[in-house]
Design goal:
Number of domains of chain A: 1
Number of strands of chain B: 0
Structural class of chain A: mainly alpha
Radius of gyration of chain A: 18 Å
Order of helices and strands of chain B: HHHHHHHH
Mean pLDDT of chain A: 95
Shape of chain A: elongated
Order of helices and strands of chain A: HHHHHHHH
Strand content of chain B: under 5%
Oligomer: heterodimer
Mean pLDDT of chain B: 96
Number of helices of chain A: 8
Low-confidence stretches of chain A: none
Shape of chain B: elongated
Distance between the termini of chain A: 25 Å
Structural class of chain B: mainly alpha
Helix content of chain B: over 70%
């Protein structure tokens, strides 16, 4: 089953053409970049704490509780603005190799976060206030850093393949 | 203004003619992925700015990280801002040397740097005051108010810098030729 009629239909929506033919596109793009940098900048603190490289005197649980809501809010705004841009040339983006890589990396980053919050962090009581977290937590922090750098690189690459 | 414009034209010509002009142009043209990689270094450095000075601003305004004292956060995070600026300047200069006319004569580029200069000044003032006394901004009501004003301005300026940075490529929308 081909989804190409669906992407073409998305592109033809009045909203899509309105965004694509006006200053809405650069506005959405700049908001996308700002919220994305905020996602990475905020999650960096959590990742470095998990790796034992920063904020060692602060409990991991308190940092994640205070930082992650900001990360998720920024991510939500980034996703909305991203969809807005996607609509304008949906069938091109879907075929864009950098866009495909970015989506895969985003899914992996999401899974990494889910595994940490639903599994790894259950043993947090043992290492919450310790400067050295568990091996699984350090792996989660390192994976997150690599994945988000990859998301940014792939995201920036999309425009070079259009 | 005419004088400034001529200065920028001269500077752009000098940059294009300097050894770094042909070098960066050839890297951009011949090394696959050079442009997106340099741009990603630039954007990741912006992420470090968001995760350092902007987070400090949000903390001082009482909006984020309530469990981490603003004084400690300032001392811990502001050095990240200065390293990020070094990386931003390096990656930015590579792009500018490759195409100086595109940037130096772009009105949005001018807006970006008009916002960046005060943002850096506020950051230096705020950070330096805590060098000798970590709780410098907490001693009197006037200092607490000043800290909040600085944080509010800094936050708006940094978001404006990032916004303007992305709009350099869309200057035609704002300033139709």
């Amino acid at each position: 089953m081909s989804l190409s009629p669906f992407w073409a239909w998305l592109e033809a929506l009045p909203l899509s053409t309105a965004i694509g033919e006006s200053w809405w596109f650069p506005l959405l793009e700049s908001l996308h970049v700002i919220t994305a940098t905020f996602v990475v900048g905020s999650i960096l603190m959590v990742d470095l704490r998990l790796l034992g490289l920063a904020a060692r005197q602060h409990p991991v649980g308190r940092i994640t509780r205070e930082v992650i809501p900001w990360t998720l809010t920024a991510f939500g705004l980034s996703a909305v603005t991203g969809v807005g841009m996607f609509l304008t040339r949906a069938s091109h983006y879907i075929d864009n190799r950098a866009f495909q890589v970015k989506l895969v990396l985003l899914v992996l980053a999401g899974l990494n976060m889910a595994v940490f919050h639903l599994g790894t962090s259950r043993s947090m009581a043992r290492w919450d206030s310790s400067s050295v977290t568990s091996a699984a937590s350090r792996l989660a922090g390192a994976s997150s850093l690599v994945l988000w750098v990859g998301v940014m690189l792939a995201g920036r690459w999309i425009g070079h393949l259009l | 203004m005419a004088g400034l414009h001529q200065t920028l034209v001269d500077l752009a010509n000098a940059m294009a003619a300097s050894p770094l002009g042909p070098l960066t142009r050839s890297l951009l043209r011949n090394v696959r992925g050079f442009a997106p990689i340099i741009q990603t270094v630039h954007i990741l450095s912006v992420a470090a700015v968001m995760g350092s000075v902007v987070l400090v601003d949000l903390r001082v305004l009482g909006l984020a990280l309530p469990s981490q004292p603003a004084s400690e956060l300032t001392r811990r995070l502001m050095p990240w801002t200065w390293w990020a600026l070094l990386s931003l300047a390096t990656s930015g200069l590579i792009s500018v040397f490759a195409r100086p006319q595109r940037y130096l004569l772009n009105p949005v580029f001018g807006i970006k740097f008009s916002l960046l200069a005060p943002a850096i000044v506020l950051g230096v003032v705020f950070h330096r005051a805590t060098a000798a006394d970590a709780r410098f901004w907490e001693h009197t009501p006037l200092r607490r108010l000043s800290a909040r004003l600085i944080a509010g301005c800094s936050l708006i300026l940094w978001v404006g810098v990032a916004m303007a940075g992305r709009w350099i490529a869309y200057a035609d929308y704002l300033f139709p030729q």
